[in-house]
Amino acid sequence: MSNPTEQSIIDYIRKRFPKRRKELVEGIGDDAAVFRNGFVISTDSFFENVHFAMSYFTYYAVGYHCLGASLSDLAAMAASPICAFISLHLTKSISMKEIDQLHKGFRKVADPFRCDLAGGDIVTSPAFGISITVVGRSRRVLFRSGARPGSGLFVTNFLGLAEVGRRVLHEGLPRKDYPVSIAKHLFPAPRIQEAQGIKRYAESCIDVSDGLSTDTFHLAEESRVRITIDAEHVPIHSEVGEYCSKKKIEPLDFILASGEDFELLFTAKHVPRLAGVKIFRIGQVTKGSGLFLSARGKEKRIEPTGYEHLTQHGN
Amino acid sequence: MSNPTEQSIIDYIRKRFPKRRKELVEGIGDDAAVFRNGFVISTDSFFENVHFAMSYFTYYAVGYHCLGASLSDLAAMAASPICAFISLHLTKSISMKEIDQLHKGFRKVADPFRCDLAGGDIVTSPAFGISITVVGRSRRVLFRSGARPGSGLFVTNFLGLAEVGRRVLHEGLPRKDYPVSIAKHLFPAPRIQEAQGIKRYAESCIDVSDGLSTDTFHLAEESRVRITIDAEHVPIHSEVGEYCSKKKIEPLDFILASGEDFELLFTAKHVPRLAGVKIFRIGQVTKGSGLFLSARGKEKRIEPTGYEHLTQHGN
């Protein structure tokens, strides 16, 4: 889809559909909508050959991947899941066994959070797909718009792994060389617990679904601040280093553009050590606007090199 | 999809995913899930050539039809809409003008209820489709399971019109002869106001989406009662009579099997005249179980002749 783009459609909708209801604190524009009663709701859709490839996904992995990615939107707002509504878009060839595998995947990722399946729809579709709406709750919601000058930029865990995993599977590279990356692409872990750990300290948050540069740009834009990513402080996982070396790609460029890691990217004045939560400080927030990269003592403005879900993975 | 059927998948899911969260009053099994705080949430998906045909639908009508059908699930629970989450599954050929028309359709059906658009997702899909999650609220929710012996069975308005409209458009019959039916298929009105009118009196409610026989059967099953439809009291609209006469179909059989009228089917001890609400009494609830038809003084058990969304409209 060269024209219109996802962003142009979102801009169109935001302009023409202003929030009117007092029950809504925040509507279109963040990872999820936030209600005055503390409910947080988000919806996502996934299609075969657009978001996942059945050449290397099992039905179990599809279930896990799609619901994991959906629950990540709740983590980004520091909300705990209550339940999910799942619409299955099924082609006529699907079997009951495959539906069973799909649901085992849903359960595997949902059960640790006691997330119920509360409803859904089942329709025949020309293409296999899944639409998921997740409902969560939070007493203190983190928005994209809370970043303040003087804070640091943090991320939970390494980035770029999911995209390495996707490419390794897509290109048929040896799976044994990239176990962490492959697991990350197939079975993304929504950072629900981590969000509960950081929410006391974080002032803004987003999940890394569109790539480090695009998601950091969102934080800067929505918070009306300038954010600088420190090139030297972005951690590079050995599998990302390995893949980039093989493909002669600069690892930092790769990470700036890689999506679907579903790690939390947040700003905070400081974050203490949190048990079981890996956190890297990779930049800082200052007055101004825009996205910058600092390397060898020099800062330069960079553009979001974004991971466009509309055009990635497509046939 | 000959195997598995929609019902077999729902049965599978209901059995394996029991409601666990105390925040949920009712999960899978009614028109919408009900939360303890009064929120009511439902999700539906629609695809071209399965739920609507672009040979006679405009994008405006698609927007109206899909959101209207979704809001009907809130009406069935006597909930008032707060907002909708809309996922667009777009093929690469769609234009910004078509997206604009689609959203004008969403607005037209949503605005009378001050229903906000609170979020969504935009993805590339091999087939044009829409997934919608609606969020509403009610202080007194109507369930399918509330029917009690001694009550009457009521419906708001004539039935069968939407299916006549669909067939007339599909078969290319003269549109001028079926204006009410065509409008009913393209632009279904969710009976939100009507639900507010009847909720003081009704004890159970469902919207007629799967056909009179199937939806009455659902009320009987979920309420563990016997419901008898009085053949003589089912009103027949002149356009339904006209179409059935032309096709040599018994109008009552047609109405029992026709879906997507999105009228409210409910049980109550009595219903007073309500300003602006058309209501027909078409049967009664007694002790026992199952669905019966009464004609010329004789009652016979009938099967739900169901409108299967999985197999209708398909190519």
UniProtKB/TrEMBL annotation, chains A, B:
Residues involved in substrate binding: 51, 260, 307
Q: Which Pfam families match?
A: AIRS
- Chain residues that bind Mg(2+) 2: 44, 73
Keyword field: ATP-binding, Kinase, Magnesium, Metal-binding, Nucleotide-binding, Thiamine biosynthesis, Transferase
**Residues where ATP binds:** 120-121, 144, 209
Q: What domain of life is recorded for the organism?
A: Bacteria
The family assignment reads:
Belongs to the thiamine-monophosphate kinase family.
Q: What is this protein called?
A: Thiamine-monophosphate kinase
